Please model this.
Amino acid sequence: MTRTLRSLMAAVAGVVAVAGAGARAQEPALADVLLRAEQYVADYERRFSLLVAEEHYVQEIRRPDTAAVGGGNLTRANPGGGFAPGGGGGVTQRRALRSDYLLVRLDAGSGWMPFRDVFEVNGKAVRDREDRLVKLFIERASDASFDQADQIMADSTRHNIGAVARTINIPTLALLFLHPDLQSRFEFTRDGTETVSGREAWVLQYKETRRPTLIKTSNGRDLALAGRLWVDPSTGVILRTNMTAADPIVRATVTVTFREDADLDFWVPAQMDEHYKASRDINDIHGLATYTNYRKFSVSTDENLRKPPGGGAGR
Model:
């Protein structure tokens, strides 16, 4: 190799090294990304009072292949065990629901309360479609509206299959963990980079560290939440969320993927994937909800409107 060629290669290597160092220097710190995500969530909360969509919700009860899960079922000594990738032993029961789905904004930092009004089960209409939930909140957003919507929601839950109550399957719930009023309850760490919806995203692991926890068991025990968030580090946009709530009795995992809605000009839940496992049941419960036909409303509400007692997320 000639002296000229060696000198040229050394110069090129030096340029590459400097460029690499510059790229690393420009990468944001975790605190910067969390601040952008916090601002994104705070703005998200201001964008609507009501977010309305059509939900197609497929629920399945699956019998796992216990050999595939290496010892099988969830136990008190192994909380969260027993999931069989791909469903294992197959589907034993399936139900498809179509519903009007509402997310109603509560006080700042309190998140969104969901309401589901089923109008079709396995392709058969169970009522006339009349947007009755939307009318309740547009015509008079008050505690009375919540009471009536609760009755509609309670009636819709009778169509669920499986023995596990589903009260944390709110597609926007994990966004709330980045809210300025709640972020300090969680510990966040970076867990690499992945591509989601064509964007490079930071994967942030989180776990709830403060007591009492946001979520309680049916017996009133603290239930700390943990999971992952996929965040665009340059904008703070949340592309995907994952949340797990587990104790020795039951495990629930909810993963939500978001998409950009051009008509609404912001990101909305596109798909929610749920998995539930109870310690006394060999079966798994799976749910897959997809959301279309979004509409958003900004309505004037009673300034004293609060989350109804017992409402919101929990088990």
Observations:
- Confidence is low (pLDDT under 50) at residues 4-23, 76-80, 82-88, 301-315.
